[in-house]
């Protein structure tokens, strides 16, 4: 939120007539508001060079508690099963599999995040997600996902290639047809 507060004109939050712009004083005031919000969000008190602002440290501390309550409330969401009205049998009866649209850059970023935090995602070794994370391998390059020859790092087309959007049909990796998956066949038959 910080950049949008400091430069609302750059993010089309406010309309400014042609040739008009925020004054230096307005920008300085917006910078002060952003600084206060940043200190309140991180529970950082004004000390040292900003000792003249010590009287508002108590307010910052109470504001930090409000931020914490807000973010905890924002993270308190319905389970995916409840939100999308799915259960363990939903995948067996869907005729068309779900499709997601994602850019190559987003795939690489997601891959990196999954590898960086795999211990938090699947701490138990017998977790099926752990097996999927092991299958990921190393983070691919944009060129390897698109099937292009490697480009020099300073090539401007590299950024454009990362924005290429692909569609992925979501399937169950563990859904193996035939005798290898008798449990899934039994569920399908029961359904």
Task: Summarize the structure in short.
Pfam families: RasGAP. With 191 residues, the chain is mainly α. It has helices spanning 2-6, 24-42, 57-75, 80-84, 90-93, 104-116, 118-121, 128-136, 142-146, 157-162, 182-190; strands spanning 99-103, 165-169.
Flag low-confidence runs: none
Structural class by secondary-structure content = mainly alpha
Arithmetic mean pLDDT: 82
Q: Distance between termini? A: 48 Å
Radius of gyration: 25 Å
User: How many beta-strand runs?
Assistant: 2
Quaternary structure state of the chains depicted: single chain
Q: How much strand content do the residues show?
A: 5-15%
Helical content, roughly? 40-55%
Strand order of the largest sheet: 1-2
Shape: extended
Q: From N to C, what is the helix and strand string? A: HHHHHEHHHHHEH
Report the total helices: 11
| Main beta sheet | 2 strands, antiparallel
Domain Ras-GAP: 1-42
Protein name: Ras GTPase-activating-like protein iqgap1
InterPro entries: RasGAP_dom, Rho_GTPase_activation_prot
Pfam family, one: RasGAP
Which properties best describe this structure?
191 residues; Ras GTPase-activating-like protein iqgap1; 11 helices; mainly alpha; Rho_GTPase_activation_prot; two-stranded antiparallel sheet
Report on the structure:
With 191 residues, this protein is mainly alpha-helical. The chain has eleven helices and two strands. Strands 1-2 form a two-stranded antiparallel sheet. Helix 2 (24-42) crosses helix 3 (57-75). The longest helix has 19 residues, at 24-42. The chain is extended. The two termini are 48 Å apart.
